[in-house]
Each structure stands twice: as C-alpha cells, then as structure tokens.
Design a protein that fits this description.
Blueprint lengths: L1 E6 L3 H13 L2 E7 L2 H10 L4 E5 L8 H11 L4 E5 L4 H9 L2 E6 L4 H12 L11 H4 L9
Parallel strand pairs: 1-2, 1-3, 3-4, 4-5
Helix pairs in contact: 2-3
C-alpha cells in the first residue's frame, strides 16, 4: 500500500481527500496543516507521495513547503488548490510538482494522476482493449 502525506489546513477537505485515497488503496500516514508540521511528518514517516494545498496556514505557502520537503527527501508532490492561475501553476511545476489539481478533485481525475505515478490501483482489474478483444461491449445476439 502506497504511503501518502496530506498537507491541507482545512480539515474537512483533508478528511474528504483521505477517504478518496483510501478507496483507491493508498494509506494516508499523516495530515499536516502547515509547512512546519509537514516537514516533521516527512522526517518521521516513510512517505511516497505528498498532496499539497497551495494556500496553507503559517508563514510558508504550499509551494515553499514543497521546496523544503524536497530538501528532506525526493518525493513526488501533487499540488491542489481551489484557486488556479497560470503563475501559481508555473511556481508549482518549478518546485517539482508532478500534477496540479483543482479542489475538490474528482475521483476519476485523482485516480488518473495516481495511475500515472504508481501504475494500477486497488480495484483496477485487467482492462481488455476493444481492438484486442474484437468486441465493442455491445450485446451480441446468441
């Protein structure tokens, strides 16, 4: 099970994301509300992925927090924000962000990003391609 850190200062958003991640087979090892707590969590836990809110409580925003985290350990960071603009997304990419999602993230969008990072997720079954199966999924008369 992949181990995730959520850095989000709104508890209801963090709880919802934690639920989404659990349904996809990921283990949220900790939730931090500010950059300082996120750094402490990175030192205490073996984290494989960080979900980072752009706007955090405290002195540092999420992008600055991600830069500090990368100083502790090289780990992929997915940025999330309710407010997106080109400049913020560019800063996030420069800080090593692997994705930038709008909050709240749709289940399908979240799963797609996670599959890009980790490959198949819990609940993913073998997918048979129409071209390989020769069947387009329509009912076949017997």
């Amino acid at each position: 099970m992949h181990r995730v850190l959520i850095v989000e200062d709104e508890s209801i958003i963090a709880m919802g994301l934690r639920h989404q991640l659990r349904a996809l087979g990921l283990d949220t090892v900790a939730v931090a509300a500010c950059a300082r707590d996120a750094l402490e969590c990175m030192r205490r836990h073996c984290v494989e992925l960080v979900f980072m809110d752009v706007m955090l409580s405290g002195r540092r925003d999420g992008i600055e927090a991600a830069e500090a985290i990368r100083g502790v350990r090289e780990v992929p960071v997915i940025f999330m924000s309710a407010f997106t603009d080109g400049d913020t997304e560019l800063r996030a990419r420069r800080a090593g962000g692997v994705a930038f999602l709008s909050k709240p993230a749709e289940d399908s969008e979240l799963a797609g990003v996670l599959r890009t990072i980790f490959g198949p997720l819990r609940g993913d079954g073998p997918v048979m391609d129409e071209a390989v199966s020769g069947h387009d999924g329509a009912d076949v008369p017997v």
